[in-house]
Design brief:
With 366 residues, the protein is an alpha+beta fold. The chain has helices at 63-78, 87-101, 104-113, 117-130, 203-211, 272-275, 280-290, 297-308, and strands spanning 4-18, 22-33, 38-47, 50-59, 160-161, 163-169, 172-178, 182-187, 190-193, 216-217, 220-221, 231-232, 254-259, 264-270, 322-329. It has 8 helices and 15 strands. A hairpin with a 2-residue loop joins β3 (38-47) and β4 (50-59).
């Protein structure tokens, strides 16, 4: 079966929302791909002071991306350090928590429930038989208790997903990323990358992969996956002598914390279906060109998707699933201090198409 359709699916799933601090629009499109494996989260009010946005680009299947869209923000909110204002540590733990939750009987059942119809039916039946909470447990925000069952030894999914998340609280922005989805901020019209694309050829990634017993062939880990970090893909995380952050493929996210200012125009999160076609600065310029003429932010996103869609599958670029979230800050930025927020770094270095620089600051979680 070909990975591409004979004609692209251009129907779009779009959404808009706003509160007193920001407004957002999003859009996603299957495009030329035979299946839609992107997912997203957009919650204006994770709590009364905090907004949460995330894009998840699945590979080998859609279920891990959908699992992250459903559960990652809940695990951030549940974290004990979240309640004392440590957003960076809470989201860092939540990335690893996704891999933990997708193991065992409960993880298997939840992934089945997020799959195709036949998988959903199987998951529902096993939920009725094995779940201690019964068939409604999928919707319960519980402690993810261990379940006995025929899949108790399930080591986790063989498919995976990138994850790029932005959390906004007053003037604090925390970005967490694993994979090659990307977060970019526009400051006075200039694009600054707030995430780094995790490719196997990067020195730090290559070193970890080789130490974990893997190899890189044609830019792919073990000749298979062209990412160095992702959630899921558990066959690459089976070295029992290594911690999760040392595996040849890891869910370990870069964490970047930024202090927002009134020069910040908007924030973009998008999967690589967009970045394959436009540089960070090109996308920021395109948004500035249309943001005041379109009726909504989602309409701007839709224009971007149409701009990136390839006329045919001959070239490869513009043939992927596409998902984009556009978050516009309302001025002035709320500079109310977070009680326990650490020192916030500023963004330094201009990005351009020749060599887009990562924003300076705390990009690795200690």
């Amino acid at each position: 079966m070909s990975i591409y359709l004979s004609t692209p699916k251009t129907e779009k799933l779009s959404e808009d929302g706003e509160n007193d601090k920001l407004k957002f629009g999003l859009s996603s499109m299957q495009g030329w791909r035979a299946t839609m494996e992107d997912a997203h989260s957009a919650l204006l009010d994770l709590d009364k002071d905090t907004s949460f946005f995330g894009v998840f680009d699945g590979h080998g299947g859609k279920v891990v991306a959908k699992f992250c869209a459903k559960y990652l923000h809940r695990e951030v909110l549940k974290s004990e350090v979240y309640s004392v204002g440590d957003l960076g540590t809470s989201v860092h733990r939540a990335f690893f928590r996704m891999d933990e939750m997708m193991r065992g009987q409960r993880g298997w059942r939840e992934l089945q429930a997020l799959g195709d119809k036949i998988n959903q039916f199987t998951g529902m039946i096993e939920g009725l038989i094995w779940s201690p909470k019964g068939s409604d447990s999928n919707d319960q925000h519980d402690d993810w208790a261990f379940e006995e069952g025929p899949h108790s030894d399930f080591s986790g999914p063989t498919c995976g997903s990138t994850a790029c998340v932005a959390i906004v609280r007053n003037s604090q922005l925390v970005v967490a990323n694993a994979g090659d989805s990307r977060c970019v901020i526009s400051r006075k019209g200039q694009a600054y990358n707030l995430s780094r694309d995790h490719k196997p050829e990067l020195e730090a990634e290559r070193e970890r992969i080789l130490k974990a017993g893997g190899y890189i062939q044609m830019g792919r880990v073990n000749g298979t996956i062209n990412l160095a970090r992702a959630i899921g893909d558990m066959e690459f995380k089976q070295n029992k002598f290594l911690s999760p952050d040392k595996q040849m493929l890891t869910a370990n996210p870069d964490i970047n914390t930024v202090e927002l200012c009134d020069d910040d125009d908007f924030l973009v999160l998008a999967c690589d279906g967009i970045w394959d076609c436009m540089s960070s600065q090109q996308l920021v310029d395109f948004i500035h060109e249309h943001i005041n003429t379109e009726s909504s932010l989602s309409a701007v996103c839709e224009r971007v998707l149409d701009r990136c869609l390839a006329p045919s599958t001959l070239g490869g670029e513009g043939c992927d699933n596409m998902t984009m979230i556009l978050v516009q800050f309302k001025k002035p930025i709320d500079h109310e201090k977070n009680a326990s927020a650490s020192e916030q770094p500023s963004i330094e270095g201009k990005n351009d198409s020749a060599g887009e620089q990562l924003a300076a600051g705390n990009t690795e979680q200690p």
